[in-house]
Amino acid sequence: MVYSDPISGKHVARSTGVANSGPKSRAEAERPAAIWEEQLNSGRYKPPSKLTWAEFRERYETEGLAGKSESMAGVTRTAMNHLERLLNPDRLSKLTSEAMSRFASQLRKEKIKETTLAGYLVHLMVALRWAVKIGLLPEAPSVEIPRATGAKGRPITAEEFDRMLAAVPKVRPHDPGVWTRYLYGLWLSGLRLEESTILSWDVDAPFAVDLSGKHPAFRIEAKAQKARRSEVVPMTPDFAEWLLQTPEDERQGRVFRLLNLQGGQPITLDRVGGTITKFGKKAGIVVARDPDTGKVKYASAHDLRRSFGTRWAKRVMPAVLKRLMRHADIQTTMQYYVNLGADEVAADLWATHRKNDNTSDNSWPQKASGAGKKPAERGASGGPVSASNQPRGSIETGRGVQEGPSSLNGRQAESYVVNPEVSPRRQGGHGGEELFGNSYL
């Protein structure tokens, strides 16, 4: 029996196991041939692959990673380097479930983080499933991906964000203006780290500011974001207003120009993320702690994105937040609603209560002290409302109900520029020229 191998294009021969003698031999040989043909056509036949690992890697990096982000390509190459170092497979087919389990075990012996291990395994499995898809492997190995045991971080508060801003000159004394502006951009935009570093004023850029419509938006090509889809996504008003303070003659190239002080070349993505974490560490903002080792994680760029999602969860419906965050799954978005704190929910309840303060008096019980008056008129103890029994969860200003001094650590809501609950931007402290240019150019 002979068939054409889809991998190599060569003819592959296989014996039927029937002796070539006698008048019935051909009929007997046709039965196993028919079974083999059915297996080949149904995809159930799994011949051992002779493709070398080196050949596969070269092909995957050329074809499989084409159009993927540099971040994904970088993690994939690192994972493959570890695989070669620890397993050194000569054939692609050697990457069985047992081999991948051994690979994970050896990485754990090197004290690698579970989250890092999970990232390597996920990227390797993407590569191996690609091999199956185009016929280089009969099937992908089964691999157990470590699951996170707790939150990787958390949203940081406005007060913590102010502390990060104060830490910038201590960490980056030679170009604090550039990094202060970048922190504001992360806080207000909700962009992922890589997205923020490629955001551009140029309309033909993969991730660009789009000012052609009624309202500012992000114009995104599929290759420039995690979801791998092209779309136009509206900016939140506070980020748009902040961004449009940029002088028109500076609206070209990258929005955030994070350059090396020596040479003026763009800083690598890893270094950008590491610098943000240094701000968090200098400010003493712990966002997670390993329950086994006690090792702490300091505020990072993604914690600023989490803060964005938490703030807007209080203002928009889940479908809108999903669009703003560009989540693939609504369940990811819903976590921002599940995690709303009691104080935040209470503030919304009090705001709604005050807006609906025209309820008829006879809808309230008449037997208690202060009968005939609504609770808002009686105060917590039944008497008139005074400064001492005014609820501390919120205060009323000319802008509506805002968080009270207790939740803003004594800061006045009126001291912020755009939306006081969304942007902790204070007047003064950082001049426009410093914020919207490269302070060292």
Could you walk me through the main structural features you see in this protein, from its secondary elements to its overall organization?
By secondary structure, this protein is mainly α. Among the domains are: 2-42, no CATH class; 53-133; 158-195 and 262-338, no CATH class. The protein has 16 helices and 9 strands. The protein has helices at residues 25-42, 53-64, 70-86, 97-109, 114-133, 158-171, 176-189, 193-198, 237-243, 269-282, 301-313, 318-325, 330-338, 342-355, 375-378, 432-435; strands spanning 2-4, 11-13, 207-210, 217-220, 231-234, 286-289, 296-298, 394-397, 400-403. The protein has a 3-stranded antiparallel beta sheet, with no helix packed on it. A two-stranded antiparallel sheet has the order 1-2. Strands 6-7 form a two-stranded antiparallel ribbon. Helix 3 crosses helix 5, helix 6 (158-171) packs antiparallel against helix 7 (176-189) and helix 6 (158-171) packs across helix 10. The longest helix is centred in the first third of the chain and has 20 residues, at 114-133. The model is unreliable at 360-441 (pLDDT under 50).
What is the number of helical segments per DSSP (H or I, 4+ residues)? 16
Q: What is the H/E order?
A: EEHHHHHHHHEEEHHEEHHHHHEEH
Helical content band: 40-55%
Shape: elongated
The separation of the N and C termini measures 73 Å
Which runs of at least 5 residues are low in confidence (pLDDT < 50)? 360-441
Adjacency order of strands in the biggest sheet: 3-4-5
